[in-house]
Amino acid sequence: MVKFFKKYVFLQALFLTIVMFLIGMYIGIAFEDKNLDNAQTFFSQSETSLMDIMALNDLLDSGKVSCDLLQQTNFDFANKIYHEAALLDDYEKSGRITDNFLYIHRKYDLLRTVLWMNAIKVKEQCNNSFSTVVYLYNYEVEDLIIKAEQTVWSKLLYELKQDEGENILLIPIARSDDFISLEALTNSLGITQYPVVIVNEEHVFYDITSIEEIKNSISRPE
Predict the structure, then answer these.
(1) Residue 205 is part of which domain span?
(2) Residues above pLDDT 90, as percent of the chain
(3) CA 158 to centroid of chain Cα atoms
(4) Rg of the Cα trace of the chain?
(5) Is the pLDDT of residue 32 over 60?
(6) % helix / strand / coil in the chain, to the nearest 5?
(7) CA-to-CA dists, residue 122 to 64, 75, 182, 189, 220, angstroms
(8) Are residues 147 and 172 in the same domain?
(9) Which of 3, 18, 65, 76 is 20 to 30 A off residue 84, Cα-Cα?
(10) Which residues is 169 bridged to in the sheet?
(11) What is the 8-class DSSP label of residue 197?
């Protein structure tokens, strides 16, 4: 009788544990789905904005749009997706159950890649009126040393952006072998390892350096 009672208590506790676990999973998935919907909405708006910028870029040769306007729209867009990506990171930190956040993150990285390519074109047409600082890093990395290095780079580049303002277009991109366009561009620049910081497609920094050294490689408006 005692054994039966103990077995009954055990099964009851196990049943309650499973029920609570399933309820927790349901709540977690529902919360994640809400955040995913928000992220998808932000991305759709940013995707439309980028298409608008590229259409505006095509008007530059016709003289119907100024370099100042085109530069400002690129900076505004970069700031927009930077803050949206930061919000996406907050969503992920709140608890990622599925891989859907990873998929959205990759889409944002592709947007940034297109922004970088568009910025190169704008600089060529507008006489290098600003500098690009592109930070390529590994998104999901296990190596603690690389993680620490990327954390230092992120803080250093944030301070650089605060100092330089609209002299630089800061574009962080999580690299992916699946992005053919990004691979083609980095291969043309001779990039061999990550993380890496690329200034104006000319100056390449693999090792963490000082803000002043990076500033020395930035083009100044005349």
Answers:
(1) 130-222
(2) 21
(3) 13
(4) 23
(5) no
(6) 70, 10, 25
(7) 15, 12, 18, 18, 16
(8) yes
(9) 65
(10) 132
(11) E
